[in-house]
Design a protein that fits this description.
The chain is mainly alpha-helical. It contains 30 helices and six strands. Strands 2-1-3-4-5-6 form a six-stranded mixed β-sheet, covered by helices on one side. A hairpin with a 4-residue loop joins strand 4 and strand 5. The N and C termini lie far apart (78 Å).
Length: 573
């Protein structure tokens, strides 16, 4: 029997028993001496996860080529024996065999999946030593490995030196920046198109996700126009990503337009649209959409209820939220997890029902996490419940003693209560543990350029004009009845100093810059990395009325749409 007949026989094998029968036949007639046949048999053992049989065959082979080594490494990876993968790789090097552009990408993928950056760097050194750094497949695998291991700078260094890059490599690099530098992700997307590559749907979804993280509306509109011009079909994956993009860029109306255009929707699509309404404080629309979802025969899942309960929480729909929470198990056989309980603690806590929130926490039979206690601590801050705040803080510090946010939040609660000695104690604890408060920043995009402000910032080239506009606006607001709420200055200083500190919050500076830079009639859109403070919230409402400007603020929790002296959150956030 010739090698071709043997391979044909192997291809007809359906199970390990048949493969072993063929193995015995190959040994008996001597055909196993053909390397091609032995490799094919090894491959079949590996595909059936018969790793012991595979290694027995491998160990007895007198001849091996790069395919043999690659199949064996892949077999160990298939059963999760990564130590043997690396040991086999070391054996390759010890035998003086030069790994090829099939073996190396296989090993690199293992490092990628395990996020084993150390071994990935070792393999990169082997690539350089053996002169394979110019091989497209090897370099593309290394770029992918570095990005998945969060070594984006290493990935970019290698990416920039590749002689040729295919669409997959560009997409991998764009996706890496989407997680850590959304602006650079969009810059790369433009470069890719300039070099003549036409993005596919995977690339477009990656860019849409980057745009969502950036939160820049004009870029979202550009991406939307590009998708329409190039006739990309609005399938479930791309359409759902665009819903999320528009929602996070501040336009729930545009998100709904995409939703309505989609011919096919799955549960993730419905949940994303419900979540979009939740971000923007439009709880009733979220509930209406949920009922529409049920009427269409679509069954909700855990994510759907997280989105729905979040929407109820941020719109103050307490009774509705309680009903939906109860219906999870009673009507849909979905057991609430810690995320659902967190939404309920947030909903009850915001409404001042701290006793009910505490009872819910005590009764829950799932493991409590950081977000749950943070929700309770946030409610204690709103309603100035010191005793419960300390209990929540103790639980948080026990779970994550190295998170500076917990110390800052409790310190702020003490500051609002005027307990400055406790404030000082917590700040000393942060210093001793080398923990730093996350600084507050506010961003605004004007003419495709991002401008960033911190409190009291005077580094902007137009600082003089910004402060002049801010002081003029404050005078007009004071004439209309604005009084700075110095309770939001959590430092033990004189009242006049508190007012001066309030006047230069990063949100106010960004809005002042928007007033001198963005034409009348266009909304001013700003983003903040922390929760907007109460005084800046009042300031924004009054600016929208006195200056007749629409302002959209995206903070760490949600969106605020200020128009004609009121906010979409109804002062409930």
């Amino acid at each position: 029997m010739g090698p071709d007949s043997c391979i044909s026989l192997l291809l007809r094998c359906k199970n390990i028993f048949q493969i072993r029968q063929v193995h015995g036949h190959l040994v008996a007639n001597g055909t196993l001496q053909h390397l091609l046949v032995a490799n094919k048999l090894l491959y079949h053992y590996v595909q059936h996860k018969a790793i012991d049989h595979a290694y027995y065959l491998f160990d007895g082979m007198t001849m091996r080529d790069p395919t043999t080594w690659s199949v064996m490494i892949g077999g160990f990876a298939k059963v999760g024996d990564y130590a043997s993968c690396y040991a086999t790789f070391r054996e390759i090097l010890r035998c003086g065999v030069t790994p090829d552009n099939y073996t190396l990408p296989c090993l690199i993928r293992i490092c990628r999946d395990r996020k084993d950056l150390q071994m990935g760097r070792v393999i990169h050194c082997v690539v350089l030593k053996d002169g394979l750094h110019l091989d497209h497949f090897v370099c593309a695998s290394l770029v992918d490995m570095y990005t998945k291991c969060a070594a984006v700078d290493d990935a970019r260094w290698l990416f920039d030196r590749m002689l040729s890059k295919d669409l997959v490599t560009w997409t991998v690099m764009i996706a890496a920046y989407a997680d850590c530098n959304a602006y650079e992700s969009l810059v790369l997307f433009n470069r890719m198109r300039e070099e003549g590559l036409v993005p596919d749907k995977v690339a477009m979804v990656t860019v849409v996700n980057a745009c969502a993280k950036l939160g820049a509306m004009h870029r979202a509109m550009f991406i939307n126009d590009y998708i329409l011009r190039n006739s990309f079909s609005l399938d479930v994956i791309l359409g759902t990503a665009m819903i999320d993009m528009f929602a996070k860029c501040g336009s729930v109306e545009s998100a709904r337009e995409v939703f309505d255009r989609m011919k096919e929707r799955n549960v993730i699509t419905w949940s994303s649209m419900i979540a979009a309404y939740g971000y923007h404080g439009r709880g009733k629309e979220a509930i209406d959409l949920f009922h529409m979802m049920l009427s269409c025969g679509m069954l909700p899942n855990r994510v759907t209820f997280v989105s729905l309960l979040y929407a109820c929480s941020h719109a103050g729909l307490i009774e509705e939220g309680l009903r939906f929470f109860d219906s999870m198990w009673e009507e849909h056989a979905i057991r609430p997890d810690v995320k659902h309980y967190t939404c309920m603690v947030d909903l009850l806590g915001r409404a001042g029902r701290l006793d009910d929130a505490t009872k819910l926490i005590e009764a829950m039979n799932v493991e409590k996490d950081e977000r749950l206690w943070s929700a309770l601590l946030g409610a204690c801050r709103i309603h100035k419940n010191m005793e419960l705040a300390e209990k929540a803080a103790d639980s948080l510090l026990e779970l994550h003693p190295q998170n500076p946010g917990h110390y800052v939040l409790l310190s702020n609660i003490y500051a609002k209560a005027g307990k400055w000695e406790k404030v000082a104690r917590f700040r000393d604890m942060m210093t001793q543990r080398d923990l730093k408060k996350v600084p507050g920043w506010t961003w605004i995009e004007v003419d495709n350029e991002t401008h960033r402000f911190s409190v009291g910032d005077r580094s902007h080239p137009q600082a003089e004009a910004i402060y002049e506009m801010l002081m003029n606006v404050i005078k007009k607001l004071e004439m209309a009845g604005y009084v700075p709420d110095t309770d939001f200055v959590l430092q033990d200083v004189e009242e006049e100093v508190k007012q001066e500190m309030l006047y230069t919050h990063s949100e106010k500076l960004a809005i002042a810059f928007g007033l001198i830079s963005i034409p009348d009639g266009d909304p001013i859109r700003i983003s903040k990395n922390l929760r907007v403070c109460g005084d800046c919230h009042t300031f924004s409402k009054m600016v929208s009325a006195v200056m007749r400007r629409s302002i959209v603020v995206r903070d760490a929790n949600r969106f605020h749409h200020f128009r004609d002296g009121s906010c979409s959150c109804g002062d409930y956030w």
